[in-house]
Design a protein that fits this description.
- Chain A: It comes from Paramagnetospirillum caucaseum.
- The structure holds 2 protein chains of 2 kinds.
- By secondary structure, chain A is α/β, with parallel strands linked by helices.
- Chain A has one domain.
- Chain A has 15 helices and 13 strands.
- In chain A, strands 1, 2, 3, 4, 5, 6, 7, 8, 12 and 13 form a 10-stranded parallel β-sheet that branches. A 3-stranded antiparallel β-sheet of chain A has the order 9-11-10.
- By secondary structure, chain B is mainly alpha-helical.
- The termini of chain B are far apart.
- The chains are: A alpha/beta, B mainly alpha.
- Chains A and B meet through helix 1, helix 2, strand 7, helix 12 and helix 13 of A and helix 1 and strand 1 of B.
């Protein structure tokens, strides 16, 4: 094992600067391949352009529900339900199980990650077996919805819930989604709105985004690197909501979370060793909660991209982080308790 | 100590890689990380949020 000279978080911060390129290199090809395959489903559903003309929610507010670790500690849906919130509820596909098992059918859900096997789990994987689970501890290891700890049982539950409620759910379905996800979405009868994720600058020569657009003519959306940011983008730029609250958007882990329960633990250990993990993970105090959170390079990048996108958003759109934890704070985001936001919009 | 100097001539010149090109720990980490680490999708800095030729981009 090489000697690590970097101090706490330093190696992680170096990687953050390269995340944009690393993501583009790793994801671009798969996203395009999936989009080519998904051309056969082009007429199953509508373009995202149609969603821009629909009335979703009864006022100009929206709440994004993502699946960060705060969800199980804060349970935002309890307060949302009790408040009688009339705006739009937009959730990540990873938060679908949380919504449906709490009796909430979201107004819109979003999916974009092209991963061939993992993302379909949020929709219920009809081909999941204990043998497949044995080879991949990605979900059961992480600090997320405890319902996912018993993976076969959770898979059965989400399959049943989506088979029952799927037809009531609108989904902003990225052309980059895997074959397994698209087939499952079609099978459950979800209301599909197709879109393309920007893969690069569409105004440059040889752009993959431009190639995607030529392929299917769906609107291209700057998705901010992750599905939570894409939900915010849908709420603000597509649904036209002026007040958007975020919940479950931690982009980090609670300070007492073991490294083993983080997303890239295995990769970090294989490179720097268990004893040097402090060089990879970045610790950030949250001045609003008075507590410390830590993050990895990918989530740190998500934070930076989100702040940039929020800063570039239409001036009439205000963003409120009601996660009540995590590392997503800073201008122009208002960090406040969910109860305060609900008090103004219910 | 005897030093083995070679007892035949190679048919082609053998070039020794410059040691300055040695992979750093950061390079290694990035190469390793690239296999698994990264966002779910790209982010395009400073571009408009929606791009649709039919609507002129908004």
């Amino acid at each position: 094992m090489a000697t690590i000279t970097e101090g706490p978080g330093e190696l992680g911060r170096k990687l953050v600067a390269n995340m944009e390129r690393m993501t583009r290199d790793r994801i671009g090809g798969a996203a395009l391949d999936n989009a080519r395959f998904n051309l056969r489903f082009k007429d199953h559903g509508q373009s995202l352009a149609a969603l821009r003309k629909e009335k979703v929610g009864e006022n100009d507010a929206a709440i994004v529900i993502a699946a960060g670790p705060s969800v199980k500690r804060k349970d935002p849906l309890r307060a949302i339900r009790e408040s009688g919130f009339k705006g739009a509820v937009v959730c990540t596909e990873s938060a679908l199980l949380y919504c449906l098992r709490n009796g909430v059918v979201p107004d819109l859900t979003v999916t974009l990650d092209p991963h061939a096997t993992r993302i379909v789990r949020w929709f219920g994987d009809t081909r999941l077996t204990p043998e497949k689970l044995g080879a991949d501890d990605y979900y059961r290891r992480q600090d997320m919805d405890p319902a996912f700890a018993d993976e076969m049982k959770a898979n059965q539950e989400i399959m049943g819930l989506l088979n029952e409620h799927g037809s009531k759910i609108r989904i902003a379905l990225s052309s980059s989604a895997s074959e397994a996800v698209v087939e499952r979405v079609m099978e459950t009868g979800m209301q599909v709105y197709w879109w393309n994720p920007m893969l690069d600058d569409p105004d440059t020569e040889g752009s993959k985004t431009r190639e995607l657009y030529a392929l299917n003519r769906f609107p291209c959306v700057n998705a901010g690197g992750n599905v939570g940011a894409a939900c915010w983008m849908m709420a603000s730029a597509v649904l036209g909501k002026k007040q958007v609250a975020l919940t479950g958007m931690d982009f980090s882990y609670y300070g007492d979370t073991p490294y083993r329960n983080t997303q890239y633990y295995h990769e970090a250990v294989s490179l720097v060793g268990e004893e040097n993990l402090d060089s990879v993970y970045i610790r950030i105090p949250n001045p609003y909660t008075g507590t410390e959170f830590y993050t990895d390079p990918a989530y740190m990048w998500y934070r930076e991209t989100f702040l940039q996108m929020a800063g570039d958003a239409h001036p009439e759109c205000q963003t409120f982080n009601c996660t009540e934890g995590g590392i997503l704070f800073g201008d122009p985001i208002v960090f406040e308790p969910l109860a305060d936001f609900l008090g103004r919009h219910s | 100590m005897d030093v083995l100097k070679g007892n035949f001539k190679t048919k082609k010149d053998v070039k020794i890689e410059d040691a300055g090109g040695a992979e750093t720990l950061e390079d290694r980490f990035e190469r390793e990380a690239l296999k698994h680490l990264g966002g779910s999708i790209a982010f395009v800095a400073k571009k408009k949020v929606l791009w649709d030729l039919d609507e002129g981009g908004k």
